[in-house]
């Protein structure tokens, strides 16, 4: 199948509160940093791999085509990273993946991209039952202004913005 060309944003810029303040992307899991697992599965799908990081830029620089950050030291949350990724993306679609979900696989990425290709003007989010997963999504880059305007108006929830844009669900079932 001819996949939707996309930029891929790996979110590694968080505060890491649940991990004692550690940089999540560099936390070891099965002998490798979490970011390595995300890179392994994402890299075959893009020629524009972006990492959103707010620290340890020198360690991430060798792994990505581009680095973005929130632009301050406040750790403004995933929407800040998504906005930076939308601004930097070289393709018409941005696939967003968190670095701290190491069991994401190629089949899920392929399903997200196939679904986005069938609905190219709408965001696509993973949904399990009634639970939306807004950090596993594909966003049309031409919607960047909507995200920026929502941010300027105080919105910090990517899920709420995408639902207002009539997001399409990429259904996932737990096995």
Description of the structure:
- Helix content is 31%, strand content 23%.
- It has six helices and nine strands; from the N terminus they run E-E-E-H-E-H-E-H-E-H-E-E-H-H-E.
- The strands form two sheets. A seven-stranded mixed β-sheet has the order 5-4-1-6-8-7-9, sandwiched between helices.
- Helix 2 (57-61) links the parallel strand 4 and strand 5.
- The two termini are 25 Å apart.
- The model has no long low-confidence stretch (mean pLDDT 90).
Q: What is the compact description of this entry?
A:
The chain is α/β, with parallel strands linked by helices.
Query: How much strand content do the residues show?
Result: 15-25%
Nearest-angstrom radius of gyration? 15 Å
Please, how many helices?
Answer: 6
Count of β-strands? 9
* Major β-sheet profile: 7 strands, mixed
Question: Which features characterize this protein?
Answer:
175 residues; alpha/beta; seven-stranded mixed β-sheet; 6 helices; 31% helix
Write the layout of secondary structure elements.
Elements: E1 7-11, E2 28-29, E3 32-33, H1 34-42, E4 49-52, H2 57-61, E5 66-68, H3 78-88, E6 93-98, H4 106-118, E7 124-128, E8 131-140, H5 144-152, H6 158-164, E9 168-171
Parallel strand pairs: 1-4, 1-6, 4-5, 7-9
Antiparallel strand pairs: 2-3, 6-8, 7-8
Helix pairs in contact: 3-5
